[in-house]
Every structure is written in C-alpha cells, then in structure tokens.
C-alpha cells in the first residue's frame, strides 16, 4: 500500500438521501441523519454551511486534520470526544492487554459456581487457555490508514478500506477486483474511475474533496455520493468503489481515496459483534448451582436450629461438655450454621469445573485429530477453535447454511448439450483428449467422444454453428498471460460456455469496441460487432448482431427457454426434441440455456439501428426504451440447441443433508442469489425433493399482509430506524415528515412488529426446508436471531465467506469452511473444516458423543458428591449437630482429587454407547440431545435422590454394625475412627463400581482407572494411618493404626460388602428394567427398528416426477449484467493518449504490502 499526503481545496457537500440508506441494527443515533427529510441546499457549493452540517460525510484528500475538526467530533464517554471517522485498525480478538483480565473474569463469573469458588484453580486454567488464543491475533499495518488518504494498491493485493477508485494502470482507469471474500463469487468484477480523475489526476497534484456521501452502512450492493472538483459535481456509485475484503486482479496498480475505514467499512458493518457463547448445559448448571445453594442453606439452617435445640436440652446440662464459654444456644446455632456451610460445601466441588474443562479440551483434541475430517487435497484438518461448546454440537435443531462455496464448489462445468435434435454427453466413457487443440484448457473435462468426432469431421454445419455462437455471443473479456488465454466473465456460467467452445475448436481470441476475433478450427476469423444486446434479469437473454466477412448480418441469441420459445419462428425446427432434452436436463438439476439465431437483411438492420440509436440517447427511461427496441429485433428466431451446465456441489452434500434431515435437524439455506438459482441448488443437493410442495414467499400472504419472504426483517429494521429518527428529530426540535403511502405496510407498533416476527418464524419452522433468497449478510443474522428468540432452539450457522461472518457469530455454533473465499469465516468460527460433508460427522459423531459423555459425567459427579457430602448430614443427628465431620480430614481432601476422579474423567472422554459407524447409520440416535433428555432437572433430582439413598446406606449400615459388635481379640471396634474408615471404604467401592455400571465402552484404560483408584485409596490410607508418619507430624495425622486395626476384622469387611451390595442392587435392578422394558434410543432393540424403517423407505415407490420448467432457467435468472456497456464504450480497449506527467515516486512513498489480518 502506498499513501500520499497532499492537501487539496475543500468544496461543498450534499446531504445523503435517508431513504436509500439501509436499516441496520448496527446503526446508532449518531449515525442518523437529522436532515433526511429535508432537501439539500440548492445551488452551488456552500463551504461554510457544509462545515456546520453534523451528518455530512465529507472527505478531503490528503488532509487528516480536516477529519479532526470540531464539527466532526462526537461524544463517546461523558464529555470526552473523538472524531467520527474511524481509523483503519480492526480488532477481531476478544481481549487486549488491558481488558483481558477484567473481561475474562466477567465471563468466568457468568458461571454462578465461580462466584462460589472465586479465583481458584478452574479460573486459572481458563485464563491460561484464553491467553494462548489472544497471542495469535496481531494488528496489521493497515491501521495506519485514515479517511482521506490517497493510497496506491498493487496487483493481487487486498483492499484495506472502502476506497474510491481514482485511476489505474489499465486503460481509462479500469480495475478488476475479486470479491470472493465479500460475496462468495469467484468471477472478477470491474470498477471504473471517473473520467475526470482518470484524465486530470495524472497531470495535477491537486486532488478533489470527496463531498458528502451516505453515512457508513452495511449495504454491500449500493453506494451514493458526490465528488466536488472546481465547482463541478460528479455523481458516484458502487462501480466507482472498491470495498474492503476484495483483491486487486489483472491490474498492475491503482490509486484510490479512502472513504470509509476500519469499523465504518461495509464488510465490518456486516460482521456483527463478537458474542460470548455458552452451552445449554452451562446455563442449566447455573440454575442447578442455584438449587444446590438453596438446598445447602436450608440444610445448614435446619442443622443450626437442631444444634440450638440440642444445646438447650442436652448440651448445657452435660457437665463433661462444658467449654467455659458463656454463649447462648442461639449464638452457638449461628456458629454451627457457618460450620456446616464449610463442611457441606463439597456439594459443588471445584474439581467438577476443572474436570469439565479437561473433558472439553480432550473432546476438542479428538475433533482436531479426526483423520476422517481431514481434507487431503488442501492439507486441511478439522479445527476446534473453542473448547467450551462441544456438547452443544449434540443438541443442534436448526442449521443455517450459505450456498456458494459451502454447498457448491462455485465451479461450473459444461456437461451436456442438444444440437439440432441430437443430445451429446450421454455416452459416458473415458476423458476426451484435446491435445489436437493448441488452445485447449487443460482443466476442461468431457467424456463424450462422439461430439468431438462430429466437430472434427466438419460435416455437421449446425454443430459448428452451435459452438460458433458460444464463442461469439458473450461479454467475456480476454487477457493474454504467458502465452495463455485468460477469460474474465461476468458469471461463472458464461465463462464455462466460452471455455467449452474453446476446447471444441472455437476459440475466442480478442475483441475491440467494434470487432470480435475467434479461431474456428485453427482458422482465425474477425467479425464486425454491430450491436450488443446485454443480459438483464427482466430480459433473461442476451444477443449480439454481427456482420460476417462475406457481408451477411446475423443475430445470435442465448437465454432461458421460457423467453426463447416465445420468440421462435414458426418455421424453426427441433423445438419438440429440444424441449424433451431440456426436461431431462432439468430432472438432472443441470442449468440450461437455449441457443438460436436469425439472419437479418441490411434494410431491416438499418431501420432498427436508427431506433436503437434514438433509444440509447433517450433522457428518460432509457433502459425501458432499449428493451422495447430489443424486442423488435429478437423475434422469428431459429433454434440451434441448448446447453446444460452443472453447478458442481461439494462431495457428499446430498448425503449429508439427507442424514441430518433424518436426525430431525432442519436445514435453512440463506443466500444472496436469486430465487431460481437457489431453488435449483435446493433440488441438486436434495434439500428439496419431488414429493415436497414448494411454497414461494411472493404467493403466500398472511392475514396481516406479510409474506413468507424476508420482508418482516426489512420491516423490523425499517421500524427501528424510523423510531430512532423520530427521537433524534424530537431532540433537535423538528417535526417528522408525514407518513408516506408505503408506510401503511409497515408495523404500527411494537406489538404488531413482534406478532409479524412470530408469524414468520412459526410458518417457516413448519416447513421441512427453507431457502431464503436475496438476503444481505445482516438479514442472514436476523433470521438466525429470530429462530433463536422465538423457538428457543440450538442453532448452527455454516459458511465460507466474509458475508457469512455475522450469521456465524449470531448462531449458537458457528462453523467456517476454509474454501475459495479466504479465511474470514474461519477466523470468526467456533469450528472449521474444509468440506460441508464433514458436518455430518461433527454433529452425529463428535457432537453426540460429547453430549452423552458430558451428561453422563455430570449425572455421576452430582451423585457421588451428594453421596459423599450427605453422610455428614446423617452423622449430625448423633454428634449434637456440632458440625463435626464424619470422615478423616485427608479423605475429605483427596476424595474428589485422587479417589474418584479418574474413572469418571475417562468416561467423560472416551465413553460411547455405539461406535461412529452406527452413529452415522442411525441418525435418530441424535434425537435425545435435541430434546435435552439426558441431562435436565429430572436427571438432576434423580442424582440427588440417588445420592441421598447411597449416603443413607453408607452411614446407617456401618452404624448399625458398630452398635453391638466384638472383634476377634475380644475388643469392640466401635470407635469413631474405625467407623469413619468403614464408611469411607464402603463409599469408595460404591462410587467406583457405580461408574463401572455406567460405562458403556470398556477399554483397558477404564479398567485400570477403576482398579487404580481403589488401590490408591488403600495405599494412601494405610500410609497416613501408619505410626511412622504420625511421629513426624503428630498433629496432622491423628488416625494412627486405625486402618490396619479395623480392616483386619472380617466382620467389618462383611459390613463393607453388605453396604456396597445394598447400594448397587437398586441400580442394577433399574438398569435391567430399562434395558428390557424401556430401552433407550441406542439399544439394540431400537436399532433393529430403525433398520426395518430404512428397509421400508427403500421399498417405497419413487415419487411422482413433476414438471420442473422453472428450474431450467437457473442460468438466465442467476446471470448478472455483463460487460456490454464497458465493451461498447471502448474503455477497456482504447489506450489513453500518452501524457507527460511527473514520476509518482516524487510524491508517493512506497511502503511494504501489509497482510489483511
């Protein structure tokens, strides 16, 4: 990037028209135009008045001080002000050095339990994990660019801001840009500088003041502004703007003026805000922690009251309990309350959250290491970019997908054609060898040798005419690059057709304003272009009128069958055969196009040319006038044939969508393409099937006059904008303009607006599949937000371009595909991989396993801690509610760390009810996660009551055994310390055998963990009960010799066995009943039922094949306007006259090209 810093004179400005501005949720009151209802100042420039205009977006070239004038300041904190012009530095990370600790602490304390633990171990683990993510993000040198700077961009460089093109090295300031990272389209688009800047900027150092344009907004398809230079005003539109996120192509260098920088750029306005995402289980655990707190307070309060009564009735009268303190029973009960808070705090242990983080980290690593999600062609593995959302992958209900680059490869391939009633492309064999053609594109593939043989024989004139038409009737631009022809087309479809003609021997070589040159079977021919009738969405066709070398005049036309058939001559042949071929192509979801021609006499053309000239200079409704003239010549056409192009899907897309649909996951496609294109892809990827009834938004009206289309989103944004503007005008003391007629269709109040939102979501969610067309990036995010808000559903968004970033950030789970559109979607995502088909494995395997493992882990963890902690509660009834613990202190310390943590941790990492193949084979196994059936309040209270039962057994059976017992030595081992050892041993056996019963997938590691936990318990217990360690630390280890003395008694071993048996017997009985009477979705009986259902589906007859004529027009509907105006103007061909001008290096300093991180 190169910047110059020269100063220019300031000129006047015009106020933007508020009606053309978008209605974005990102807009604030500071962005609203208080004068939007007023007309701009008449007459010429008024510099002094313009400076006082708040809302003006004035830019002066090479004058940074101008942007810092007081009138361009806005408040941002109390009385502090800053310039309303954003710098070009963009921060995509969540934290910086100053905000890292406070923001991370705030995020951690959204977990209620962390308020309980404060800054203990789990917080430290999370802080370290997040710090590693922060280091990865670096600010680039683009941050040094400011509004008003003139920059020089080099070929293949990224555009750092929204820039007004001033000049370029190409003829007439033509510049090609690739917008793949912006809108997903890989075909190049051209931008043009104004003629005045192209001619005069080269010889004058004084640059213009770019005067008022629209305020920064998120409209990628529109820009309105005015440039003032020497008291002249020049209108500007999107064709003059190069947007951030694009790349310079086929242009050595260009110069531009920065209009919007940083957060004001259109791509950032569509990016949305970075959101902190939490899983449903996290939210549920917060409420459960609240419940545990309430239970804890109630239990401690009850025990404290018990202590007060006990002391009043018993303790105060027992002389041996006198402690010499003059304290009332109530005060002693108050102290007992806090004592029990400490004793029973293990109901929510710190180790729970530590273990959850470890499990999530391990599950993320399994995703990263999955070789079945590794894309070898691009050496791209799957990447879990977060470790906090894994179990949410097992609860997805709605998937929102982009189309271009996500479902499709954005690559068009010429597959079949029909010529004069004969269809080619059906005789599949090995790949055709095009080595006979020196111009052939090595990447082109075709498998029907009969077509090549027909062309090379030169006997079939209609076949030759077919490919001659493809090589002549187009608006493709050609460039010679290292002895190779490089085509630049307005759409991938048109590029595919010209490339096909090239490989079959009809090579487009070059064009000028008035001629086009092709090679016809190695014979170079030049045709005079008399008229070029470009494509638009209303015409659905394009034509070219040529004068042949022998003087003949012929019109070639290609377009949608729906418009071509209406204009065919009655004498045209092959109409019925071509119609049949089109039906076949349509059923194969190919994009079709009809080709035809017409010979024109000189007298007919001269008469038409005069009308065409008059229409082309019409001052009003010029396009409509031209369309009427085009209609007069495009009639009585003769059919040649039709083409069939495949919009290549990514591998495995139909199968993935079918599997996700069986898992009751609803898939919505959100695309900026036109309806016909999106519908065609819907059929190709089997999102739409023949047995579905298709409803279009234009045809379905609700009783409140709202359609199923995206109009509710536009109305919502419109109402929000209008309300803000009314508030702003009221603050300025001005009255808002009266409502226009179109306002009658807008929501009247908030209630009606919300009812329209609900109606839209309810109707759309009733459908099996939804395709939203012509949506902006902001609208994509709005659709996701509405489903989240009104359906309370878990959503996933998947996309591959910068236009999908907002949608990815808004959904509960964001997935980025590292494709042809750059890495912006990946950098904003939670998970990333290279192909859409990997989504099936991510959800049905990793997501489902993660959810089941986490649920099983949490259920067991709550159980084992309730069983452990509530023993203290029962013991309180026998110790005067004195807050004395039932176990040895070291056992309490090591219970969750050493004795019971490893087996449940491995279950959370490795357990699986079925393997990955069965998980994908039976998608219905995914249903419990969507319903939240495996972990909810019901499961929580089951774990609570299970823990209560186990604690009762663990305490009262040993207690009963110790009431009347006699050891082998004649002594009664009925002391408190021996009771604690027996209870602890019984608990360790119970919880470790309980997790064994819960384990579905046994490995050596699981078996070792259970045995190792029990062995560690006995090893440590015998060590800390030994006389040697008591001698060293007499006050710390007080249970000297208890374990050896107690556990050598067979009676106590029988007590332990009885306690463990009674604890586990109900569990075994309930599991038996569940397996036999209430089998889960993963049990063998249900899997057999799913297999039977699949067999029945395979036996079903194929659905009735409906006529799908609308799908054949996909190419004509999707094709954007071509380069006809550019070609006709000659701006891309004529070289500008040489002008003596100073070396730009004299005033422009070169700096290294910065990357767009």
TrEMBL record:
Q: What class of enzyme is it?
A: translocase
Compartments where located = Membrane
Q: Which cofactor does it need?
A: Mg(2+)
Q: Which GO terms describe its cellular component?
A: plasma membrane; trans-Golgi network
Question: What EC number(s) has UniProt assigned to this enzyme?
Answer: 7.6.2.1
GO BP field: Golgi organization; phospholipid translocation
Bilayer topology annotation? Multi-pass membrane protein
Tell me which residues bind ATP. 402-404, 494, 535, 558, 591, 671-673, 774, 780, 803-804
Q: Where is the P-type ATPase C-terminal domain?
A: 826-1080
Instruction: Indicate which residues the UniProt annotation says bind Mg(2+).
Output: 402, 404, 800, 804
* Region feature (Disordered): 1-54, 730-750, 1092-1115, 1135-1157
Name one molecular function that GO assigns to this entry. ATP binding
Q: Reaction catalysed? A: ATP + H2O + phospholipidSide 1 = ADP + phosphate + phospholipidSide 2
Q: Main localisation, per the record?
A: membrane
InterPro entries per record: ATPase_P-typ_cyto_dom_N, ATPase_P-typ_P_site, ATPase_P-typ_TM_dom_sf, ATPase_P-typ_transduc_dom_A_sf, HAD-like_sf, HAD_sf, P-type_ATPase_IV, P-type_ATPase_N
UniProt biased composition (Acidic residues) = 16-40
Ranges where the P-type ATPase N-terminal domain occurs: 74-125
Q: Which residues are listed as membrane-spanning?
A: 115-137, 287-311, 331-356, 857-878, 890-910, 940-964, 976-995, 1007-1033, 1053-1078
List, from the UniProt record, the residues annotated as the active site of this protein.
Answer: 402 (4-aspartylphosphate intermediate)
PROSITE patterns reported in the protein's UniProt record? ATPASE_E1_E2 (PS00154)
Q: What are the alphabetically sorted keywords of the record? A: ATP-binding, Magnesium, Membrane, Metal-binding, Nucleotide-binding, Translocase, Transmembrane, Transmembrane helix
User: What CDD domains is this protein classified in?
Assistant: P-type_ATPase_APLT_Dnf-like
Family the entry assigns: Belongs to the cation transport ATPase (P-type) (TC 3.A.3) family. Type IV subfamily.
What is the protein named? Phospholipid-transporting ATPase
Which classification does the entry list for the species?
Eukaryota, Metazoa, Chordata, Craniata, Vertebrata
Please name the gene that encodes this protein.
Answer: ATP8B1
């Amino acid at each position: 990037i190169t910047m110059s810093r020269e100063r220019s004179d300031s000129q006047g400005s015009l106020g933007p028209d508020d009606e053309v501005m978008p209605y974005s949720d990102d807009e604030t009151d500071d962005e609203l135009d208080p004068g939007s209802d007023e007309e701009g100042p008449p007459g010429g420039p008024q510099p002094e008045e313009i400076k006082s205009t708040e809302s003006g977006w004035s830019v002066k070239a090479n004058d940074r001080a101008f942007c810092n004038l007081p009138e361009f300041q806005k408040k941002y904190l109390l009385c502090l002000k800053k310039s309303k012009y954003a710098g070009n530095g963009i921060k995509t990370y969540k934290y910086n050095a100053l905000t890292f600790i406070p923001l991370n602490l705030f995020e951690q304390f959204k977990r209620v339990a962390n308020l309980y633990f404060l800054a203990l171990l789990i917080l430290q683990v999370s802080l370290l994990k997040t710090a590693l993510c922060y280091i990865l993000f670096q600010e680039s040198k683009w941050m040094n660019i400011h509004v008003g700077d003139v920059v020089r961009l080099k070929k293949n460089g990224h555009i750092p801001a929204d820039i007004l093109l001033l000049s370029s090295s190409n003829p007439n300031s033509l510049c090609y840009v690739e917008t793949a990272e912006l809108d997903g389209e890989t075909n190049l688009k051209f931008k043009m500088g104004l003629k005045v800047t192209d001619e005069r900027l080269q010889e004058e150092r004084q640059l213009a003041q770019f005067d008022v344009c629209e305020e920064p907004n998120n409209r990628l398809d529109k820009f309105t502004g005015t440039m003032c230079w020497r008291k002249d005003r020049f209108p500007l539109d999107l064709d003059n703007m190069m947007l951030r996120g694009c790349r310079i192509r086929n242009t050595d260098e260009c110069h531009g003026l920065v209009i919007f920088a940083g957060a004001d750029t259109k791509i950032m306005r569509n990016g949305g805000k970075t959101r902190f995402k939490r899983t449903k289980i996290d939210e549920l655990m917060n409420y459960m922690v609240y419940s545990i707190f309430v239970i804890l307070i109630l239990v401690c309060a009850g025990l404290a009251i018990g202590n007060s009564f006990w002391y009043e009735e018993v303790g105060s009268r027992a002389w041996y309990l006198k402690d010499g303190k003059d304290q009332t029973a109530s005060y002693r009960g108050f102290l007992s309350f806090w004592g029990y808070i400490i004793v029973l705090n293990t109901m929510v242990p710190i180790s729970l959250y530590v273990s959850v983080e470890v499990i999530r980290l391990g599950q993320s690593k399994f995703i990263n290491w999955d070789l079945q999600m590794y894309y070898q062609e691009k050496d791209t593995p799957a990447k879990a970019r977060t470790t906090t959302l894994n179990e949410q992958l097992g609860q997805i209900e709605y998937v929102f997908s982009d189309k271009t680059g996500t479902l499709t490869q954005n690559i068009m391939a010429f597959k079949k054609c029909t010529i004069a009633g004969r269809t080619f492309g059906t005789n599949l064999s090995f790949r055709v060898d095009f080595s006979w053609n020196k111009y052939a594109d090595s990447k082109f593939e075709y498998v029907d040798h009969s077509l090549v043989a027909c062309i090379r024989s030169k006997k079939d004139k209609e076949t030759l005419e077919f490919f001659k038409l493809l090589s002549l009737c187009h608006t493709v631009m050609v460039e010679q690059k290292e002895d190779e022809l490089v085509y630049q087309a307005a759409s991938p479809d048109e590029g595919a057709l010209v490339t096909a003609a090239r490989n079959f021997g009809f090579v487009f070589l070059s064009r000028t304003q008035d001629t086009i040159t092709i090679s016809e079977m190695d014979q170079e021919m030049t045709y005079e272009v008399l008229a070029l009738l470009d494509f638009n969405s209303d015409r659905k066709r394009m034509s070219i009128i040529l004068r042949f070398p022998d003087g003949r005049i012929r019109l070639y036309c290609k377009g949608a069958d729906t418009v071509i058939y209406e204009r065919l001559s009655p004498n045209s042949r092959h109409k019925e055969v071509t119609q049949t071929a089109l039906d076949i192509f349509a059923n194969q979801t190919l994009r079709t196009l009809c080709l035809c021609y017409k010979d024109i006499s000189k007298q007919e053309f001269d008469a038409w040319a005069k009308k065409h000239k008059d229409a082309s200079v019409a001052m009003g409704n010029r396009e409509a006038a031209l369309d009427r003239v085009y209609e007069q010549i495009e009639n009585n056409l003769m059919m040649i044939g039709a083409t069939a192009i495949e919009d290549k899907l990514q591998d495995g897309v139909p199968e993935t969508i079918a599997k996700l649909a069986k898992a009751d996951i609803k898939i919505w496609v959100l695309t900026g393409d036109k309806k016909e294109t999106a519908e065609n892809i819907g059929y190709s990827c089997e999102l739409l099937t023949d047995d579905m009834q298709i409803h279009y938004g234009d045809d379905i009206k609700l009783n409140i006059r709202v359609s199923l289309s995206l109009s509710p989103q536009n109305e919502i944004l419109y109402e929000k904008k209008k309300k803000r503007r009314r508030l702003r005008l009221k603050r300025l003391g001005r009255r808002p303009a009266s409502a226009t007629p179109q306002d009658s269709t807008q929501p009247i109040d908030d209630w009606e607006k919300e009812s329209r939102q609900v109606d839209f979501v309810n109707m759309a969610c009733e459908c099996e599949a939804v395709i939203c067309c012509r949506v902006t990036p902001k609208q994509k995010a709005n659709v996701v937000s509405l489903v989240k808000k009104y359906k309370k559903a878990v959503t996933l968004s998947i996309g591959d371009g910068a236009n999908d970033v907002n949608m990815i950030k808004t959904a509960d789970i964001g997935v980025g595909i590292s494709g042809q559109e750059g890495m912006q979607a990946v950098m904003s995502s939670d998970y990333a991989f290279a192909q859409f088909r990997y989504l099936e494995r991510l959800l049905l395997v990793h997501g489902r396993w993660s959810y089941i493992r986490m649920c099983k882990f949490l259920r067991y963890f709550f159980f084992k801690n309730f069983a452990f902690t509530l023993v203290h509660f029962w013991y309180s009834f026998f110790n005067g509610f004195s807050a004395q613990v039932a176990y040895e202190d070291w056992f309490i310390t090591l219970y969750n760390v050493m004795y019971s943590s490893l087996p449940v941790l491995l279950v959370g990492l490795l357990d699986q009810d079925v393997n990955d193949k069965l998980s994908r084979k039976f998608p219905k196994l995914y249903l419990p996660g969507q319903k939240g059936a495996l972990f909810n309040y019901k499961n929580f209270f089951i774990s609570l009551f299970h823990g209560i039962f186990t604690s009762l057994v663990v305490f009262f059976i040993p207690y009963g055994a110790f009431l009347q017992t006699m050891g082998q030595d004649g002594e009664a081992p009925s002391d408190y310390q021996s009771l604690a050892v027996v209870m602890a041993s019984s608990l360790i056996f119970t919880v470790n055998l309980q997790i064994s019963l819960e384990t579905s997938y046994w490995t050596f590691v699981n078996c070792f963990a259970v045995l190792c936990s029990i062995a560690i318990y006995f090893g440590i217990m015998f060590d800390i009960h030994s006389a040697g360690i008591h001698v060293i630390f007499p006050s710390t280890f007080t249970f000297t010799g208890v374990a050896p003395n107690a556990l050598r008694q067979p009676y106590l071993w029988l007590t332990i066995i009885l306690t463990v048996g009674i604890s586990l017997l109900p569990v075994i009985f309930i599991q038996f009943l569940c397996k036999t009477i209430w089998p889960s979705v993963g049990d063998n009986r249900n899997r057999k039922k799913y297999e039977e259902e699949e067999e029945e589906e395979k036996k079903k007859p194929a659905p009735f094949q409906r006529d799908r004529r609308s799908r054949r027009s996909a190419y004509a509907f999707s094709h954007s306007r071509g380069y006809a105006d550019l070609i006709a103007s000659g701006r891309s061909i004529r070289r500008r006259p040489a002008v003596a001008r100073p070396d730009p290096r004299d005033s422009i300093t070169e700096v290294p090209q910065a990357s767009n991180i």
